[in-house]
Amino acid sequence: MNILVLNGPNLNMLGIREPGIYGNESYEALVNMIEEYCESKAIDVTCLQSNHEGALVDYIQQAYFDKVDGIVINPGAYTHTSVAILDALKSTGIPAVEVHISDVSSREGFRQISYVSYYCFATIMGEGLDGYLHAIDLIEEKIGSEI
Q1: Which of 4, 26, 115, 117 is deepest in the core (most CB within 10 A)?
Q2: What is residue 108's predicted lDDT score, i.e. its pLDDT?
């Protein structure tokens, strides 16, 4: 199984940006946690991050050609603004889970709309960094049930 973990804008600033909301762990710590978890489950994983919408679209489209089995995506602020990311996900047909470190449903009103949720088969929020591991498990279950 091959999973792409994709992070949007400002997630490279984990541990620095609003630690009361996003915690004290760095982006590198997140990537290490994901890689170790996937290694223990014999899952190939690629973790990518960009602050640029077009780069995220390119990563999603490339996932199709790389025959990625599932996508875990935290689009950051693009969650609430990017139809382009939604369309890229839809165009690939790759199962995807949306992840948010914080519980965006209890935050500002503008954060209540998630365009990617129109495609993703699950949304995980408010579980901190562990939400990524939960998302990987959901993709593993979904892919396993389709075989």
Answers
A1: 4
A2: 67
Vertex 112, ends 76 and 121: CA angle to 5°? Answer: 70
Residues of the chain with pLDDT under 50: none
Exactly one of 100, 115, 119, 132 is catalytic; which is it?
A: 100
39 contacts: CB under 8 Å, gap ≥ 6: none
Question: What per-residue confidence (pLDDT) applies to 19?
Answer: 75
Q: What is the CA radius of gyration of the chain?
A: 14
Respond yes or no: is residue 80 known to be catalytic: no
Tokens of 54: 């077009």
Is 118 one of the catalytic residues? no
Domain spanning 2-146: CATH 1.20.140.10 = no
Both ends of the chain: CA-CA distance in Å? 12
Instruction: Specify burial of residue 49 (Cβ count, 10 A radius: 0-12, 13-18, 19+).
Output: buried
Closest CA relative to residue 126, chosen from 146, 147, 98: 98
What is the per-residue pLDDT for 47? 98
Helix (H, G, I), strand (E, B) or coil at 124: strand
The answer, as to whether pTM is greater than 0.70, is yes
Contact 116, 73 (CB under 8 A): yes
